[in-house]
Amino acid sequence: MSSLNHCIKFELDVKDENIVFKDYFYKSIKLQKHKIYEAELIQPACPFCGSLDLLHNGNLITNIRYLTANASLPVIIKLAKQRVRCRDCSR
Known about the structure:
The chain is mostly beta strands. It is 11% helix and 51% strand. The protein is built from 1 helix and 4 strands. A hairpin with an 8-residue loop joins strand 3 and strand 4.
C-alpha cells in the first residue's frame, strides 16, 4: 500500500481495503473550491459465490459527496468501480 493511499484513508477514515486512492486535486465548481479525490474500487472475488474467475468489463465512475467538518471546502470522491461478471455463477 502506498504512502499517499494510507494517508488519504486515514484522513477520510475509510476502512475498506478494496478502495485504492490514486490522487487528489482542487477544482472550482460553481465558483466554489472543491477537493477531489480519485479512487478505484477493486473487486477481488465474486460477492455471490466467492469465485476468483472474473471477467472485467470496464469501469463505472461515480461522484460521492463526502461530509466533512469544514463546510467551506467540500470533498468529492471520484470512485471508479470495476464492472465484473463472474464466469462461474454468471452474475
